[in-house]
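Q: Hi! First time asking for a complex rather than a single chain. Here are the components, and I think there are two in total. Is that enough to go on?
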Amino acid sequence: MTSYILPVIVTGIFLYAALKKVNVFETFMNGALENIKTSFDILPALVILMTCIGVLNASGAVNAITEFISPAVEILGFPPQCIPLALLRPMSGSGALAAFESVLSQNGADSFVGRVASVIMGSTETTFYTVAVYYGATKTKNIRHTIVCALAADVTGFIVACTAVRLFL
Amino acid sequence: MTAFICLSVLIALIFGIAGNNTEAVSDALLSSPQSAVELTIKLLGAMAFWGGVMKVAEKSGLVNKLSKLSAPLLKRLFRGIDENGEAFGAIVMNITANLMGLGNAATPLGLKAITALAKEENAKDSATRNMITLVVLNTASIQFLPTTVATLRQAHGSVNPMEILPSVLFTSAVALAVGLSLVFLLDKSKRGSERIK
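A: Yes, that's all I need. Here is the structure of the assembled complex.
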């Protein structure tokens, strides 16, 4: 069923645009170039953050932190291998991407851990960065309960991701 | 970020020395930057492709059409907002762009929305409930197609990279519902546009 989604959406968008007399090729190239530029814009951040995560992993520090937290999260059915991803997710998009990549390469994409990590990655966002950028634009000093609500949504996402993988996959 | 960077290299050094692991740490320093480049390259094709597809969708007027569908729903969420104002228009476009995964378009629209909202609701130093609602909507992931995740899953040998879609949509919906409910529950103002001193 899910294998239909992408082909149908892509075909639908292209045909609809052609009907609306949009120059599909040219418009596509503009959008593609924009995203290629973005990819390279975030590469410097990815280099330093992946290196930080790389050395933390290699030194055994990530293992120590994971072992320290895992008894608490295992009660909730949360896989300990996803702890680094969950910790980085609200802080840094590149950092989370790096942690996600390392979960997939160590556990495989179709394992329970790999699937939970995929769902976490697809259903949460970089909370602190977004909050900083938005309230930076309005120069708001008192952001009231924004952080509590946003982080509650993130934590809910982490826990529900495990349940969803057990239910749907 | 500076704190994170300094702490991680320091902690890695301490753990490396304590666990007699410095060789692995040194190897990681040499190989991790390359992994970052490889990850970018691995994702570059998909990033370019979906950027192109979504740009075509935007140009064809599909984003505007979707906006008309989401406007009535958003009207209920942003209580007390001027429906014909600049802020609401930008909010609708921002949310629609997020749904379609148009990250490049969503952020400028979102910033336009929140500055217009702060002005319309005379927010000054303190965030109004409608501003908090907008930010929480943007810190949650409401993207319909997780294309980056699917691409990486495929690169790591997944048989069906998109099989996670129902779980992703379900999880996003529950997380967003909890976040938005808390926005209202923890709020002391009666209307969304009201300012708290």
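A: Residues 44-168 of chain A form one domain. Let me know if you'd like any chain examined more closely.
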